[in-house]
Amino acid sequence: xxxxxxLGVTDGQIxxxxxEGCCSxxxxxxxxxxxxxxxxxxxxxxxxxxxxxxxxxxxxxxxAYPAGFxxx
Length: 72
Known about the structure:
2 iron, 2 sulfur cluster binding; 56% helix; 72 residues; Arc Repressor Mutant, subunit A; mainly alpha; two-stranded antiparallel ribbon
């Protein structure tokens, strides 16, 4: 879905930017220039960033706890 119509930025591009290392809305904005024209997309762009960062953090938290085992 298009988030920023002025620059043609999609939610997929925002997610990809986060998966490639962006850690905040500010980083995504610098990378993709989203919300730099009219600004109407800023709220939706922030929502996509927030949701994606939450997904990434929860998946990393799941990996941080190794499966328990008992040594024989």
